[in-house]
Amino acid sequence: MERNIITSPQTGDSCIHVKHSSGLDIYISEMKGFSTVEALFGTKYGSINTMFRMREDSEYTCVPEGIAHFLEHKLFENEDCDVFELYAKTGASANAFTSFDKTCYLFSCSKNYKESLKILLDFVQKPYFTKESVDKEQGIIGQEIKMTNDNPEWRVFFNMLRCLYHNHPVKIDIAGTVESIAEIDADLLYKCYNTFYNLNNMVLAIAGNISADEVLAICDECLKPCEDKGLESVFPDEPAEIVTAECRETQPVGTPIFNIAYKCVPCSGQERLKKGVCAMVAVEMFSDVSTDLYQRLLKQQLINSSFGTEVFTGDGYFTVIFSGESSSPEKVRDEIKAEVARVCESGLSEKDFQRIKKSAYGNLIRELNNVEAVANLFINAHMDGVGPFDTIDALSKLTSEECLEFIKNELTDDKLVMSVVEGTV
How much is the pTM? Predict the structure, then answer.
């Protein structure tokens, strides 16, 4: 089992990467001087992975929306007890999450990390589903879905995605719908588990007050070898055009909330990393508190401190989002459009670009001193098909010309949508 040391040429930070004999990729960061440990055990399986096949399959399998999230819930129950009871004995704080493209199980602790790591590796490899437990979970998750349907921030976000995407499953709620989860049974859960929870499709990231030798010894003890079965996920064809430019909904909110977004061309791997870094700096050139646009919107009382941006990317989707609260979201949208047009005509200020870039770079460097951030960095980078320190490298080489090119090519009026949730009159 070969240990590869991956080092950032910019900062000198490093981690250990091991391709374990079981098929699992393992990333370890021994952070001397820290007292805590963060571990994530994840699979590249999220809400968008509804259509897939193995190498030996002649046809694709389609599964109900929300099944990845459903499966995450059920894995915490085994035949003997609830997993949280086991963690209670070690003193670790445990959790899990399902996103659009991944499911992760995690714990953080300041002592007994070896015992907690054994629990993590053990229960994720031991599925236990019965008809009775599935039926019970359908009711629980059904209530969760109804609660999120009443959440204005959740509604404005998914309404925005439905404005952007015709066919891509990213527009579907991560938990699915009450109707879709009703189709889930134990056999389907086992099928999805055996497909996506293959160790060749998974990664372990652990950082903090640990010993790599101890971590790898536990992995040798707990991991069950898996054959790589050539998993392939596919997505429906997605037109470049948006669905509709605007969506409005009423909810009990005091001030209207908005998501204003541009539909960009999707990509993957290193190309997505570089484009994502470029997009991050580009939108900060519009939304940072020091920019002319931000100050102008603030003086006109069109935004407040909730105004911000996000670069939202994954397999088959790429969008940049401006969000916040405003008494007149239409004016915010029009101001953003006008500022984009002005930048396309006049160019970017090199001074402002360097300041925004240095700030973003500083944020990345600061995260390398955070145990939780480091573990998350490793798992996210691996699932995106890039190295753990590649973002720092890409940002250090970014130029203002590349940012301007991104703005001109991607932030076009025909790809702009606005989702608003406003209060009832």
Answer: 0.94
